[in-house]
Amino acid sequence: MIDLNAIWYILVGVLFTGYAILDGFDLGVGVLSMFARNEDERRLHLNAIGPFWDGNEVWLVAGGGALFAAFPPVYATVFSGFYIAFMLLLAALIFRAVSIEFYGKVDSPAWRSVWGWAFGIGSLLPAILFGVAFGNILRGLPIDHRGEFVGSFFTLLNPYALLIGVLSLAMFIMHGAAFLTMKTEGEIRDRMSKWAVRAWVVFALLYIAATFFSMRVSPHLFRDLTTNVFFYLALIPLAIGIAGFPAALSARKYLAAFAASAATIASMIALSGLSLFPWLAPSRINPGFSLSAYNASSTPKTLGVMLIIALIGMPLVLLYTAFVYWIFRGKPQSSHESY
Hints:
Blueprint: H1 4-33, H2 39-49, H3 53-70, H4 72-81, H5 83-102, H6 109-139, H7 159-183, H8 186-217, H9 229-250, H10 254-276, E1 279-281, E2 291-292, H11 300-327
Antiparallel strand pairs: 1-2
Helix pairs in contact: 1-2, 1-3, 1-6, 1-7, 1-10, 3-4, 3-11, 5-6, 6-7, 7-8, 7-10, 8-9, 9-10
């Protein structure tokens, strides 16, 4: 039977999954902008995500807020342990947001060059850092008997977490390139399609490597996993997404390719969540020190009240998000009023 703790474990996962899918293509587009051939092409990257990027980041805020409200000890331990990494992440996101708004404000090549690179680097760092953070969660954190993080910033920069960080980067580039195939035409679209295929190849190879190393570094993730029916429900869309992505691009079905990359991201996070459950912050020191959805949650009354609020608020957010994407479903155009 699914209880309130499990429901909130799922809801937090859904919010972070929504962020990975929606802001994931933003980050990918930002990284790809560093390879734009001219200013007009870079403007095209900016205008492609212009109507969406700030709304997409709301999902990150909502996910962090839900984690704080539902599982406060996990929020405290993870955010204090990842403090320097999260400050770097926050700085990158701030510079990225400012660069989008400032890029076209001054008619100067030097000005646009500075903010163009800020946009690219401000997208590159989060794409890697999110993966590094997630890799450390999968690997397990140095959490002691008091539930406190006892490592350092350099503890987080272990080979396994860095591998997941590079995997995350490849995944977002693939996702961003797929998004741009829907928003561009002609020669640029063909190049974005090639970028998407290259990123898919790198992603697939890294995913195989990450799975292999996960078995060695974190064998607990695979314990009793194959006996869980939800494992197969999450595995099927992952297989379809990975296999269908290049096929859709080859057939010039760009919306299908974007849907395939989105399904791949959602399935990967779902599989990771199933592997970790009920842990939210597993301990490498002693499994008994791990923070879970049960020993690190708010009171049942708090979870119940918040669930009512979430059931009212989340459909509104989904409707608003769908409305914005429908209104700006066309291809971007560069003008004096654009980014």
